[in-house]
Design brief:
Elements: H1 7-18, E1 21-24, E2 47-48, E3 51-52, H2 61-88, E4 94-101, E5 104-105, E6 108-109, E7 114-117, H3 125-133, E8 140-142, H4 154-159, E9 167-173, H5 180-197, E10 208-212
Parallel strand pairs: 1-10, 4-9, 4-10, 7-8
Antiparallel strand pairs: 2-3, 5-6, 7-9
Amino acid sequence: IAWDPGALPVAHRMAEALDATLVETRISRLVIDCNRPLDAPDLVPPVSETTAIPGNAGLSEKQRAARIALSWQPFHDTLASIIEKRLARGLDTRLVSIHSFTPVYKGMNRPWHIGIIHDEDRRLAAPLIAALRRLAGVTVGVNEPYSPADRVYFTLERHARPRGLPCAMIEIRNDEISGEAGQRKWADLLTGIFLDLEPEAARGSRASAVGKSAQSAN
């Protein structure tokens, strides 16, 4: 419940293969969830799934502000700075968020191996979903196990949507990426899909910016 198991190694491997910039959080989402708006009730979660978090009970405004300054603000400032510098250089830019989810949540089994989360902008999500559905034996969730209505889309809403950038959120079931072999498998599969999506003109200077929040979703 404190981080997204397996997601960071996948994101690292993808970023290296795609020559993309990776932004990762370094503080547990139980301290503060960087993929939530500041007014979200689970920004500093009092309960994660069914587990009470005693250290988050009764925080003062000063303590809350200290957590924002420690992790939330630097994460979003860094993303904004990287994106603005890319756009100033005229680089084609996409924002992709990599996460993992538990096979069982609040007693409910989750059958999807991978989920693609998107809002009404499907420029990146639609070809991702189509490519994943062509893989034998892979069950693909579309806005499953989460959707933007669950407040999990905040990072993309904040940084990609106002700038008109294609974006998508990728959720991989964490038993699929619990070990190095699974992490390598999914990173390479996703990397291949993204390379196929790149226009020829962009191949010389890989265009994706990958944002990884270890604090985003269960």
